[in-house]
Specification:
By secondary structure, this protein is an alpha+beta fold. The chain has one domain. The chain has 1 helix and 2 strands; from the N terminus they run αββ. About 0% of the residues are buried.
Length: about 55
């Protein structure tokens, strides 16, 4: 059986809390036989002083 665990953060106000979560979640994922697939950056771009992105 294949399963996917997807995390989405609308806003991060404390980077240390995200790092602490990753420190626990990564090993738990691997211990359960999971594989980390990807990590992304915020989907927001700034061009010519105008911002564009999701929800804008």
């Amino acid at each position: 059986m294949t399963a996917y665990w997807i995390n989405v953060y609308k806003e991060v106000t404390d980077d240390s809390m995200v790092a602490a979560y990753a420190a626990l979640a990564g090993p738990a994922l691997r211990d359960a036989g999971g594989t980390f697939l990807a990590r992304g950056l915020p989907e927001l771009t700034y061009e010519s002083a105008a911002s564009s992105g999701r929800g804008q």
